[in-house]
Amino acid sequence: MHRYVMPESVKDRVLRRQGKLFSHDAIEAGRAALVVVDMQNYFCAEGFPAEVPLSRAIVPNINRMARAMRAAGGTVVWVQTDSAEALARWGKHHTHMLTPERVQKRLAGLDSAAEGFRLFGDLEALPGDLRVKKVTYSAFMPGSSDIDAQLGARGIDTVLIAGTATNVCCESSARDAMLRDYRVIMLSDGNATWTDEEHAATLNSFAMFFGDVMSIDEATARLAPVSQRRTA
Q1: Domain count, the chain
Q2: Beta-strand (E) ranges in the chain?
Q3: Lesser CB count within 10 Å: N end or C end of the chain?
Q4: Which tens digits make up the pLDDT trace of 119-145?
């Protein structure tokens, strides 16, 4: 697992911008969702084309955060990339930035009927959780998925981002969520990518400009359960 420690220079810039290290004093569970991005076999399981080996190390942390979110009355969302509309929606990326062999592996491996599309087996996804399919790197890019409509219908305005890869689909989703006026937290020990350098660079930039970066312990400590007095 990545061992992320926010540099003092980043902390100083965050403090100058917002006056405190975290903008969230509390995370109201009833208005929050844990959004787990691309924890699929294609990216997590050994031997698959886009394997991120460290993604397997964050599975226990993601499961722990999901259990805490559900227990507090919050929402858990599992986001999975589906290649069905990839060429139609962002064909230039596939044509100009991937080898023909890589394109074919990606289209086949992320087909919704393929083993690569499935969530990694050790994840504790439950029937009551939301499932979202996305087309592009970002789940929150208009037209990529219906996540914005699903969260909006539930009154959710805060998202906690976990998954893989930190600096690709997780970062893209987190930034776009912020620009769609969600409050956003990236979970430092709930995200994984290929190198410590990529992970740290993404989280440092996100903290300075886009939202909070917290550990799962820091997030769960701020999780405010839905009042037992609220009606369903």
Answers
A1: 1
A2: 27-28, 32-37, 75-81, 130-134, 158-164, 183-192, 212-214, 223-224
A3: C
A4: 999 999 999 999 999 999 999 999 999
